[in-house]
């Protein structure tokens, strides 16, 4: 049961990373004021979300190895 909830949490984290990535790519493609104002913030949020997703994946691997 714990593994299933962890899988769902990992999938959610990966979807968050994907949504942030698409927002960043869309802003970059559109350009303009939105991109100038938010490009660095979006990049930082993506890096943080990726770190969380990787930490969750590594935690699941560690738990399954025990």
Automatic annotation (TrEMBL):
The chain crosses the membrane at residues 6-26, 47-65. The keyword Secreted does not apply. It comes from the Bacteria. InterPro entries: Hypoxia_induced_domain. The keyword Repressor does not apply. Residues 1-66 form the HIG1 domain. Keywords: Membrane, Transmembrane, Transmembrane helix. NCBIfam families: twin_helix (NF033233). This is Twin transmembrane helix small protein. It comes from Paracoccus fistulariae.
């Amino acid at each position: 049961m714990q593994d299933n909830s962890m899988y769902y949490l990992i999938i959610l984290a990966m979807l968050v990373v994907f949504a942030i990535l698409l927002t960043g790519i869309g802003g970059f493609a559109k350009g303009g004021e939105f991109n100038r104002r938010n490009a660095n913030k979006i990049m930082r949020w993506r890096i943080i979300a990726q770190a969380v997703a990787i930490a969750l994946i590594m935690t699941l691997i560690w738990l399954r190895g025990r």
